[in-house]
Specification:
12 strands, binds adenosine-5'-triphosphate, 8-stranded mixed β-sheet, binds iron/sulfur cluster, globular, Rossmann fold
């Protein structure tokens, strides 16, 4: 089996605050994930603001260095000790797409110039080679080179421009695309087009996705696997339908309940942890214990290990069975 994604004891610590009130934020705290598959897969990373999702994506994309540990993508170590040194090799393995396509392109440059540069970087030098690579990538996202050529970002809708970003990401033929909130800035009516595009790229181009999202509905629709994060730790990981259909970790249960009741999204984009959040990052036992209805003394003392369940999922809770019982899903 191929290792699509693996993190091994992955840690990333940040320091926040001034000299007087300085706190360490373990944005990734001993994250161990492993997805093995011979087929392309879509893995979703969900959790409220400040859970560490973007940090994990940034580490994998080598935008930030991990404090320790490593990340492997398609059998290649891409971050941490032993990471592949060649940028070209790295780019042919994974590519990013970001939340706001209008920030990904300068307003003063034509979008096809970005695509051309990506094609040049991976070795397409001749005019016809570049055109063929661009044509192929744009066709696969439902666009034509002729419709894109010479146009500036403001001549596209958000949905179209996100398609162009995806086309750019496809040019190096990556094995996996890391997509951080790729549809949250796009009109609700167009979101499913992009999500469906992920599914068709997975089937037709064998591209896997790491999909970072607040939106549990699209995560349920599109994912094969799901990892739920809370304050830098994984709390539940496994088959997406099993987990979102019958969550076992109290935090996953809360997440699904809060979506069902309020349909709210979690907002935040500044690096300023609230006092409660900063405190939870410092907890030595289970970080969810102050919000958990099932917490007992051990939850304060010991970090819950991954308890593997019958269906293969991993639940990081001392009382995984008890929480399942609370949901009335076991005798
Ligand atoms: P969001 O959904 O809001 O993007 P997230 O789950 O992606 O949240 P991260 O952005 O990874 O979470 O942040 C995890 C924690 O690390 C937060 O407490 C955040 O404040 C902190 N953090 C992230 N980046 C930095 C940074 N560059 N400097 C300091 N702290 C940071
Ligand atoms: Fe709740 Fe304890 Fe489980 Fe944490 S380990 S989720 S506090 S029961």
């Amino acid at each position: 089996m191929i290792t699509v994604l693996k993190t091994t004891n992955l840690n990333k610590f940040y320091r926040l605050g001034g000299l007087v009130k300085r706190v360490r934020i373990n944005a990734l705290d001993d994250v161990n994930l492993s997805v093995q598959s011979n087929k392309p897969v879509i893995i979703s990373l969900v959790g409220e603001s400040g859970s560490g999702k973007t940090t994990l994506a940034k580490v994998i994309l080598r935008l930030v260095k991990p404090t320790s540990g490593s990340a492997t993508i398609y059998d290649q170590v891409v971050a941490g000790e032993g990471a592949i040194p060649s940028r070209k090799e790295f780019l042919s393995t994974l590519q990013p797409i970001f939340q706001n396509p209008f920030e990904a392109f300068s307003a003063y440059r034509t979008v096809d110039s970005y695509l051309q540069r990506t094609a040049n970087r991976i070795g397409h030098k001749s005019g016809s080679g570049v055109s063929a690579a661009l044509d192929e990538a744009l066709n696969s996202v439902g666009l034509k080179y002729a419709d894109v050529k010479g146009k500036y970002p403001n001549q596209f809708s958000g949905g179209e421009l996100q398609r162009v970003s995806i086309a750019r990401a496809l040019i190096p033929k990556p094995k996996i695309i890391i997509a951080d909130e790729p549809v949250s800035m796009i009109d609700a009516s167009l979101r499913m087009n992009i999500i469906n595009l992920f599914l068709s790229l997975k089937e037709d181009f064998n591209t896997s996705f790491l999909y970072i999202t607040h939106d549990l509905a699209t995560a349920y629709y599109v994912s094969d696997y799901i990892a739920v994060m809370y304050r830098g730790t994984i709390v539940e990981f496994g088959n997406a339908r099993d987990i979102l259909g019958s969550p076992q970790h109290p935090y996953t249960q809360l997440l699904l309940d809060s979506i069902a009741v309020t349909n709210r999204k979690w907002e935040r984009k500044t690096y300023k942890a609230s006092d409660i959040e900063a405190k939870e990052f410092q907890f030595s036992g289970c970080r969810f214990r102050n919000r958990c209805p099932y917490a007992e003394a051990i939850c304060k003392e010991e970090r819950p290990p991954a308890l593997r369940q019958e269906d293969g999922r991993e639940v990081y809770c001392h009382f995984a069975d008890k929480t399942r019982l609370a949901k009335g899903e076991a005798a």
